[in-house]
Design a protein that fits this description.
The chain has about 425 residues and is mainly beta. Helix content is about 0%, strand content about 45%.
Length: about 425
């Protein structure tokens, strides 16, 4: 079955009674998933989700054949979280660390999630941003510095379409393509031409129209409507990709002239992107081979990741990198001390190696020292460090090969980024 969406981004899906109904696609990206909240005529909530969204032109998206299930009335999209919870970043009204997914408190229908070091973020079906966890720098955006163990709405009244997080700052794109940022702002990762922390979203300067956004530890990245990558914040290792090591408090264009379709900044000091041909590029710190160019040389301009793979999704851990190829295989490179590369070794790699297990993945994410992915059946898998239960397998044992996250849920989106915890959307 094939479907397409155009114009106002609506998609026709079969309802449980066989009728075709149109629903707004509230999240879509090349190689990613789309969660589509549904409210039926009888008032009950439901959800449909599509795997492998691919941009086809400037106006539309198409879904891979066979990827459209019927819309069902239950369950509807909910956020679940597991791992470290000392600041309430799991959102379950406790500070108890969890080694199996627990539901984030509230009746919110979330369509996207992101993780900071000790805080979490989400967007609901109406485009409101929500946040919970540590708030020492205002990264929850609720005009306080009070940590929260349940979601609170980010202030400002913006309608957001994408969300991301650095370690202690938060990022989002609104419906007009403007980027907004809040939280820690040293050295300039909010992009507002200051180094002042903000407890409410401020607009990133420059007037760019962005389509994708990502956060590094203390730097930020985005792709504009023409496929150019922009970066701002910490640049000590060249992670802004502008051929300098100068910190920036306003976006600067990543050099190289590439047209990018996906970007990732979860690495503490490195950045990643995929170009329109599916090549992966990397820049910044490379002490563990996390740039994948068969060296340990830091780079202040993008270099192509070696191996000749065609990638559809990319992600970053603190010092390792992850990607999914066009066949659904996961690849990893960089630091492997805790098994976060998933190749049944603890050997660091400066070129991509295939994650073992033979799974076909549709989404991938990297934590500080662990990795996560969702397979074609909606199962979540995790590998690497597990000291806080962040693998979700009801143990605290590190794994050098993927293990299934327990609970029997069907996952659509997953995030960990800079964290010792993991957050996902269950449909």
């Amino acid at each position: 079955m094939t479907a397409s969406v155009t114009g106002d981004l609506c998609i026709a899906l079969p309802a449980s009674d066989g009728t075709l109904l149109a629903y707004k696609v509230v999240a879509a990206k090349r190689g990613g998933n789309a969660v589509i909240p549904v409210r039926f005529s009888d008032g009950l909530l439901g959800a449909a989700w599509v795997v492998g969204m691919n941009k086809t032109d400037d106006y539309g998206f198409s879904a891979n054949a066979g990827s459209l299930p019927v819309a069902v009335k239950t369950p509807y999209p909910k956020a679940w979280a597991w791992g470290l919870n000392g600041a309430g970043q799991l959102g379950d009204e406790t500070n108890t660390t969890r080694d199996i997914p627990v539901m984030v408190y509230g009746e919110h229908i979330f369509t996207s999630v992101a993780c900071g070091l000790y805080h979490s973020l989400a967007i609901d079906e109406a485009g409101n941003a929500w946040a919970w966890g540590n708030n020492g720098y205002g990264q929850l955006g609720d005009e306080t510095n009070t940590k929260r163990d349940i979601p609170v709405m980010v202030h400002g009244g913006h309608i957001f379409t994408a969300i991301a997080s650095g370690q202690n700052h938060s990022l989002a794109i609104d419906e007009d393509g403007n980027a907004w940022a809040w939280g820690l702002n040293y050295p300039g990762q909010l992009g507002d031409e200051t180094n002042t922390d903000q407890d409410i979203p401020v607009m990133v300067h420059g007037g760019h129209i962005f389509t994708a956004i990502a956060g590094g530890a203390n730097h930020s990245l985005a792709i504009d409507e023409d496929g150019n990558a922009w970066a701002w914040g910490d640049n000590g290792y060249g992670q802004l990709g502008d051929e300098t090591k100068t910190n920036r408090d306003i976006p600067v264009m990543v050099h190289g002239g590439h047209i990018f379709t996906a970007i990732a900044g979860g690495g503490i000091y490195h950045s990643l992107a995929i170009d329109e041909a599916g090549n992966a590029w990397a820049w910044g710190k490379n002490n563990y081979g996390q740039l994948g160019d068969e060296t340990n040389t830091n780079r202040d301009i993008p270099v192509m990741v070696h191996g000749g793979h065609i990638f559809t999704a990319i992600a970053s851990g603190q010092n390792h990198s992850l990607a999914i190829d066009e066949d659904g295989n996961a690849w990893a490179w960089g630091l492997n001390y805790h098994g976060q590369l998933g190749d049944e070794t603890n050997t660091n790699r400066d070129i991509p190696v295939m994650v073992h297990g033979g799974h076909i993945f549709t989404a991938i994410a990297g934590g500080i020292r662990h990795s996560l992915a969702i397979d074609e059946d909606g199962n979540a898998w995790a590998w690497g460090s597990n000291g806080y239960g962040q693998l979700g397998d009801e143990t605290y044992t590190d794994r050098d090969i993927p293990v299934m996250v327990h609970g029997g849920h069907s996952f659509a989106f997953i995030s960990s980024s800079h964290a010792y915890h993991s957050v996902s959307i269950v449909v």
